[in-house]
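Work Package 3 committed the consortium to producing structural models of liganded targets before the mid-term review. Because experimental data for this complex are still outstanding, the team generated a predictive model from sequence and the ligand definition alone, so that downstream docking and mutagenesis planning could proceed in parallel. The input record is reproduced below exactly as it was submitted to the modelling pipeline, together with the SMILES string for coenzyme A.
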Amino acid sequence: MLHASLLPLANDRVRLRPLRAEDATAYAEGAEDPTVRRYAHLPEPHYTPATARAMIEGAARDGLERGDLAVLAIADPADDSFLGSLVIFDVTEDSAEAGFWLRPDARGAGRSAAALDLAIDLVRRSGLSGLTARTVTDNTASQRVLEGAGFVETGRQASTAPSGQRIEAVHYERWLPRPTPALPLTTERLALRLHRAGDEDWLRRIYERPEVVHYLLDPPWTPQLAERRLSERLARTGLESDAGALALVVEHESSPIGDIALWLTDAAHGIAEIGWVLDPDHGGRGYALEAVRRVLDLSIDHCGVHRVTAQMDARHGASARLAERAGMRHEAHLRQDWWSKGEWTDTLVYGLLADDVHPRR
Ligand SMILES: CC(C)(COP(=O)(O)OP(=O)(O)OC[C@H]1O[C@@H](n2cnc3c(N)ncnc32)[C@H](O)[C@@H]1OP(=O)(O)O)[C@@H](O)C(=O)NCCC(=O)NCCS
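The resulting structure, written out as C-alpha cells with the ligand in place, is given here.
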C-alpha cells in the first residue's frame, strides 16, 4: 500500500504531489502531445479539461485514499505549476509499476529522472521492495531516464498497456531496500547502534593495532584517518540512505567492542557486502558471530537483499570460520588478486543467498 501521507515530496528539480482540480487544463493539454499519446499509454485516448478533472476528483483521489493507485503531478518546485504526471499503479504488497510523462516545454532538464527519484522514495518508504516500469523499444528518452534512475532491463515481450493497447515492451525493474528498522538492533548479549560523534577515539584504539589492520586495506589509523572514517560512517545510516550502506557499532554492556557494516554493491539488484571488525580484547566469546548473524538476518529478512557477500584476506582464518558459522558458503578462493601492504594476497569469497535462507518451493 502506498502511504499518500508522505506527499508532497520535493527535490531541487521537481515536486511530486497529488493532482488538484486546477491542474485539469494543463493535464488535458499535456496529454494531447503526440509523444505522450504515442508512448504514455494513458487509460483514456483523449482528455478534455472536464474529463481530466473528473479523473482527478474520481479515480486519482480514490486511488490515493485506498493506497493502490497514485496519479500524481510532477510540479515545478518554485511555483508548484503542473509540468507532467507520474503514475504508480498495479500496487501489490511488494511492488508497483510506474509511468510518467512531461509537457513538451518541461523536457530536457532531467525532470522525469528527478520525479522518478521521488517516486522511488515514496514506494520504498511505503515498504515495497520493487518498482517496475515498461517502455517501448523505440522510446530512447524513457529508457535513458529509467536506466539513469537505477532501473535494469529484465526482458522484452509483448504486453498490454494501461490503455488496453498491445505493445512490444522493454521491462525494467528497480530493487528497493526496505527501510532500516528502529535502532539499536539487539541480540542476546549485544546492541548494534549507529555511529555518533565521539566514536573516533575508541575506533582508533582498535584500528591503530597492527594485528587488526594487518588483513585490512587500511594502514594503522592515525587520529586524522579515524576522523575521516568516522565521518564516512556517520552517513551510513541504512541501505536506503544516499550512502546505500549501514555502519553499526557493536556494544557489549554499553561499551563499544567492534563494528559491522553492510553496503550495497549492486543497488539495482539488491546485492550487498558485509564486513566486520572486533576488538581483539573481546575475541573468543562469539560476539562477532552474534552480531554478524543479526546483520545477515536484517539484510535478508528485513531489507529484502538477494545476496550478501563477505570477502577477506585468505590468511585470516578466524574471519573465514566466522563467515562459515554464520551460514555463509565458501564460494571462491581468488589467488593473488590483491596487492596489499607490499605483497600479493589471496582473497576468500563467502556468499549467502536469500534462497539459502528461505528456499523457494
Ligand atoms: C520520457 C520523458 C518524460 C523524458 O523527459 P525528460 O526527463 O525531460 O528527458 P530528456 O528529454 O531530457 O531525455 C532524457 C535522455 O534521453 C535522451 N533523448 C531524449 N529524446 C531522445 C530521442 N528522441 N532519441 C534519443 N535520445 C533521446 C536525452 O538526450 C537524455 O539523455 P541523457 O540522459 O543521456 O542526457 C518525455 O520525453 C516524455 O514525456 N515523453 C512522452 C511520454 C513517455 O514516453 N513516457 C514514458 C513512458 S514509460
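Reviewers should note the following from the model. The longest helix spans residues 49-66. These observations will guide the Year 2 experiments.
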